[in-house]
Amino acid sequence: MKCRDVMSHPPITVTPDKTLEEATELLAKHDIGLLVVVERDNPRRPIGVLSERDVVRAIAWKAPLTVTVREAGTFSGLLYVYADDPVEKALETMLKYGVRHVLVLEQNGDLLGVISMRDLVKYCKLSI
């Protein structure tokens, strides 16, 4: 099975100028653990992520909810797989880096979706 077959689509995105408060509202509303940060002018180009871990870190540092996603998120070392990679590649990447999400990209780098551990558990249940 391919990554495109198990990913969450469409990914929930946010722009880097949004506040931490706005971003956490999106996380709660969609019951997800990761927002993909995209360019305002190109919503298919991922430039970062804001994870639950990023939010916890910001709160621990006493950051106000008015800080921007750019200040609170992760913008280097983005982890991704390609849509046509086997699902096992996503699992390997998550285990290697100790993360719970990977981005799913088209070959040209456009954002297509996100695979979470929750998605992989559903995939495993279907495979049994």
UniProtKB/TrEMBL annotation:
Gene3D superfamilies xref list: CBS-domain (3.10.580.10)
UniProt domain CBS: residue ranges: 7-67, 74-128
Record's keyword annotation contains Transmembrane helix: no
Pfam families registered for this protein in UniProt: CBS
Protein name, entry field: CBS domain-containing protein
Keywords: CBS domain
Natural source organism: Pyrobaculum arsenaticum
PANTHER family per the UniProt record, alphabetical: CBS DOMAIN-CONTAINING PROTEIN, CBS DOMAIN-CONTAINING PROTEIN CBSX3, MITOCHONDRIAL
The keyword Phosphoprotein appears for this protein: no
